[in-house]
Backbone:
């Protein structure tokens, strides 16, 4: 009986995840090499916040601040569609957490955040190298995947031009074995495929 309940829960969570599908930013695939990829992303608008703490604390704190913005803590009390992934990167002791704004949004069309810690900014077109993985994205897993991606870049003579980013695609209720994560490293735009 317990096994049947577990299976039913997994099915419901899977179907619930599909019913709650969110948009992802468009990109042009440059390389697809198993778990590794290189992609070109266009200019994007993001809402971002800078926070402190370890990876999980910063991710949670940043997520809450950004979720408040898109759920109406803005000058128009307007809801903004959720997109995936939630992206976080670290420089020194600070973490930047970003929500990508929906396609078609402009700086003029988006409401201003009520919280001064939240900023809506334009991000230039970017080429990134990516490694995909599943699971809960613990710090040790992210560190291992980052090392794998750096080795992949080195083996192809590609140059990183920014810090690694952790991209999480699933809501927190998604079972760990179904979660989709990526480590992304910006690389030189002219880097050959």
Residues:
């Amino acid at each position: 009986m317990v096994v049947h309940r577990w299976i039913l829960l997994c099915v419901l969570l899977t179907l619930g995840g599909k019913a709650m599908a969110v948009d992802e930013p468009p990109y042009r695939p440059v390389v697809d090499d198993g778990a590794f990829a290189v992609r070109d992303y266009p200019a994007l608008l993001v809402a971002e916040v800078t926070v402190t703490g370890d990876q999980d604390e910063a991710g949670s704190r940043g997520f809450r601040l950004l979720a408040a913005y898109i759920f109406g803590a803005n000058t128009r009390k307007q809801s903004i569609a959720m997109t995936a992934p939630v992206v976080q990167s670290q420089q020194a002791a600070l973490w930047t957490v970003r929500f990508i704004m929906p396609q078609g949004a402009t700086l003029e069309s988006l409401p201003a955040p009520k919280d001064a810690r939240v900023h809506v900014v334009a991000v230039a077109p970017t080429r990134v190298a990516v490694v995909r993985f599943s699971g809960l994205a613990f710090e040790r897993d992210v560190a291992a995947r980052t090392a794998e991606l750096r080795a992949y870049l080195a083996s192809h003579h590609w140059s990183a031009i920014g810090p690694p980013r952790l991209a999480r695609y699933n809501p927190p209720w998604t079972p760990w074995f179904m979660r989709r994560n990526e480590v992304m490293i910006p690389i030189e735009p002219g880097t050959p495929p």
